[in-house]
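Hi Prof. W.,

I finally got the Methyltransferase type 11 domain-containing protein prediction working! I wasn't sure whether to trim anything, so I left the full sequence exactly as given:
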Amino acid sequence: MSEDWKPYTLPRDHTESNRLDAEHRGYKVNVGYLLHPRIREALPTNAHQFPKERDGKVEYGLLNVLKDVPEHHKAKFDVFHLRLLICGLKTRDWQKAARHVLDLLKPGGWIQWQDSNFPNLKCYNNKPGASRKACSGLLSPVLKALSAQDKFMPHSITGLMSLVQNAGFEDCDEDVSSSDRVAETRATNNVYQQDAVTTLGKVLAQQGAMPGWTKEQVDAVTARCIEELRDAKVYWRWDFHIVTGKKGP
Ligand SMILES: C[S@@+](CC[C@H](N)C(=O)[O-])C[C@H]1O[C@@H](n2cnc3c(N)ncnc32)[C@H](O)[C@@H]1O
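And this is what came out:
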């Protein structure tokens, strides 16, 4: 992996892939769609003929969104869906990423950028009086360390719409939804979200970015967090921002 990918904090292994699958299911239910209805309606009428994954016609490739777009990818895409880049981007990168997406799209093509407002991630009481001490005690140094690394910056998420506009997109709009729009998902959200907080904690502790914390201490507090989260007595909650916009003719 090249140096350009270094700012990304989470691991790229099978455990993380399984966590992302669970997260994907939670996001789909709570956002209410995968592709925004306004993009779906604007797609060409023959969109139902797009190849399905099971036909073996989907191509996968790697693209570093922070690098200049290669010539052969320029103006080639109808829709570009970015999701959850918050762990990878520093403040200066968000605008650059949006500009590169503009280069990738055909005239009239759409961007859908969904990101999570993790700076406002909080542990909420479902059962009045239930302890949230371990959860908030672990979250606080994790957010502090990420912020010191110029990641998870609140203005990046709340400013997502303007930075997409500033990159040159037209007719922009924003949906804001919450991770517990469907309250029944609180228990399953707790599992993948706690895994994310724990993994970030361990990575940051190993980097020496969380003064006074070791990987073992993160593990010990995690055991107490899991106890607090059991039966969703308390639950992790945060917002999603979904910005859509169109490339001009
Ligand atoms: C939290 S995961 C989200 C994965 C997936 N987009 C989803 O929503 O389930 C963040 C992803 O961003 C990717 N990423 C980080 N930096 C990137 C960059 N500069 N260009 C492209 N992708 C990047 C990581 O490889 C990782 O797959």
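The longest strand covers residues 105-125. Does that look reasonable to you?

Thanks,
D.
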